[in-house]
Amino acid sequence: MRAHTELIHEDDYIWHAGELPFGEGKVRERRLSTDEEDGSTSLSLDFPGEWGRAGGVPHANTEFYVVSGSMTYGGREIGPGGYVQAPKGVPMDWLKVAEGSRILHWREYGDCGFDPGAQRWADAAGEATVLDSNAMEWTPAPTVGPITPLYIKLLNRDPLTGFYTRLIRAEKGWTDHRLAHHPCYEEFYTLGGKMAYNFGDIDDGTYCFRPAGVKHGHFIAETQIDWIIRSDGELINWYTTEEWVKWGGTAENYEHQHAPVISTMPLRSKSRGEWSGDGM
Predict the structure, then answer these.
(1) For residue 159, what are the β-bridge partners?
(2) Cα(83)–Cα(77) distance, rounded to whole angstroms?
(3) Which member of 14, 15, 54, 268 has the lowest number of beta carbons within 10 Å of its beta carbon?
(4) Mean of the pLDDT values across residues 90-95?
(5) Rounded CA gap, 86 and 54, in Å?
């Protein structure tokens, strides 16, 4: 299970040596979040020098999204907005990343393991895909209530589980005052723009990971803003309005006195600004 991260800016992480087995060249990573039980990991990659890797089979559902620079996959070059996805056990073609590139990388339901030159696993499903999101049209997302629509570009969706990766855009002035929560996790990385949010500002490089059931809102888009969003199931919005909060209780079996425990307090960057939970 991954920790609830509500909001962290990428610059508040430190760089580590990139964990991309059997690659050649220079790469470093910022580990945005990790599931220590199955190895699922969300990474921001930086390439101080050229990097490449021969074809092979990944041990996890694998995704790459080009933020800046370029990546060549099996001879096809993709720039910013380019996307590569391969299910676990499905062979990937060779990769080459240009010096100075920045890429988001996800491994789901598995670790960083990679078998060079291996054959397709017997139980593997699906095929590798390569997309240029710039060639895709923005599609209005369905809305509930009198809310200006968000816009989406669907990059990948698993027909069995509903797991998806998509780009989301909110136009300047978009707002939603309702608290929402979902039956699945929700993860996003901000690609550009700025939004005011009750847990702090959201701008370029801001990252969030919310487990299922975590309520969030209110939002106001101060500029046009774009995210890449992932979820491990069909994202259904359950809304709460006219909300109120009450907590308290009697300590039944505490062995010693300690500060109040707030189980819903997430990991968060101070650089995102103050919010009402500070000082408790």
Answers:
(1) none
(2) 11
(3) 14
(4) 98
(5) 15
Instruction: Return the closest-CA partner of residue 119 out of 89, 156, 160, 95.
Output: 89
Q: Are strands 76-78 and 71-73 parallel, antiparallel or unpaired?
A: antiparallel
Determine contact, residues 194/164, Cβ cutoff 8 Å.
Answer: no
In 3D, which of 142, 280, 144, 278 has the Cα closest to residue 198?
A: 278
Mean pLDDT is highest, among 4-13, 139-148, 188-197, 258-267, for 188-197
Inter-residue contact 45 to 57 (CB < 8 Å): no
Residue in the structure block whose two tokens are 């990573």: 29
CATH of 13-133, picked from 2.130.10.10, 2.60.120.10, 2.60.40.1120, 3.40.50.1460, is 2.60.120.10
CA pair distance 213, 185, nearest whole angstrom: 8
- CA-to-CA distance for 157 and 134, rounded, in angstroms? 18
pTM of the model: 0.89
Of 87, 90, 83, 86, nearest to 57 by C-alpha is 90
- What's the fold here for domain 139-243? Jelly Rolls (2.60.120)
Residue type, 162: G
Q: What is the DSSP string of 136-188?
A: SPPEEPP-SSS-PPPEEEEEEE-TTT--EEEEEEE-TT-EE-SEEE-SS-EEE
Per the CB < 8 A criterion, the answer to whether 189 and 7 are in contact is: no
